[in-house]
Amino acid sequence: MHNESALLLRLQQQQAITSPLLLINPPDSPGIYAGLNIAGALHANYSHYMPWRQTGIPAWFGCQLPDDLAAMPADTCVVLFLPKGRQRLLAQLQLLGSRVPLNSRLIVIGAVAAGIKSTGKKLVDYCTQIHKIDTARHCHAWSGLLKPLPRVELIELFTHWPFEFNEQTLPITSLAGVFADGHLDSGSGLLIDTLRAYQSDLPGSMKTLDFGCGSGAISAALAMLRPDSSITAVDNDAFALAAAGRTFARNNIQGMVKPTAAPIDLEDQFDLIVSNPPFHQGISQTTAVTTAFIQRLPDLLTRRGQAWIVANRFLNYEQTALASGLQIVQRADNRGYKVLAIKH
């Protein structure tokens, strides 16, 4: 159980919360909250959403609540588990808008290490009667009453930035909290430059997977290099998927954007797999997702397929690839990153 969930249960035991709860970003499986009166749960994290699908509790995966919440009790209390980053928090507060009952109580719970201490100041534009109601397990809980807020649609929060590639400008769409929001990060830039340099070595047929697609910049570059390719872009984050979907549409990219909870859930086989894989979960660093992803490559690659990934130089993914029976070679590096090409 996450400390944030433990604090919510503590508030319920202290009878600080008696209303039905609408949870946003709950980090644990539904069994953890079994003693609470849950009216619904909104998840931006697909792996967190998956266990909720068969519970009978209304649960949604996406950036915002559905338009029709007429059945939500009038005294519903919204519990927002603090997302990573100030901009994501503000975006989720804006998207609450008129989608919850007027004057709903809002409780924001988060870890001290994630920045919860300053949350009270960030709530001023959205709530009245803001105060801290509890502190435990290195977490704080803030409470307030939501002000009448103008309705904000997700499309209003999209930002756009130009990606100059092959003497053309590719429009990239992003959203708050999406990795490298508003610019091309150094790792992705190195991967794209390396793919362009080794373009003649790539498979002739291009059924492509972009794992951990973010805003879709790598997919957009690949579509420029190989216009006949079909690209499947996957991510765990609803905001990334929404941004990538818009990037695909604006660049007329053939393919699809869809969620995935873990590498084990990936199906089909691909001629080319590219990835700037996730290295963080929340505020923690982890190599677990990328390790599991590399271990799945023997099943995901076609016989002559290739996977190209970029990673921090100090991460030893080479050993994982070799232990999985794969061939691996380093194709490029700079001060911070390296590009690895992997095949059967």
Question: Number of DSSP strands?
Answer: 18
CATH topology of the largest domain: Rossmann fold
CATH class of the largest domain: Alpha Beta
The percentage of residues in β strands lies in 25-35%
Q: Quick one: biggest sheet?
A: 7 strands, mixed
The first-to-last residue Cα distance is 39 Å
**Count of runs of 4 or more consecutive helical residues:** 9
Order of helices and strands: HEEHEEHEHEEEEHEHEHEEEEHEHEE
Helix content: 10-25%
Describe what you observe in this structure.
The chain is an alpha/beta fold and 344 residues long. The protein folds into two domains: 3-154, 3-Layer(aba) Sandwich (Rossmann fold), CATH 3.40.50.150; 158-343, Vaccinia Virus protein VP39 (Rossmann fold, 3-Layer(aba) Sandwich). Helices cover 24% and strands 32% of the residues. The protein has nine helices and 18 strands. It has helices at 3-13, 46-49, 86-96, 119-122, 186-197, 217-225, 238-250, 288-300, 317-323, and strands spanning 21-24, 38-43, 59-61, 77-81, 105-111, 127-136, 139-146, 159-165, 168-174, 207-211, 230-235, 255-259, 270-275, 280-281, 284-285, 301-312, 327-333, 337-343. It has a seven-stranded mixed beta sheet. A seven-stranded mixed beta sheet has the order 12-11-10-13-16-18-17, with helices on both faces. Strand 8 and strand 9 form a beta hairpin. The two termini are 39 Å apart.
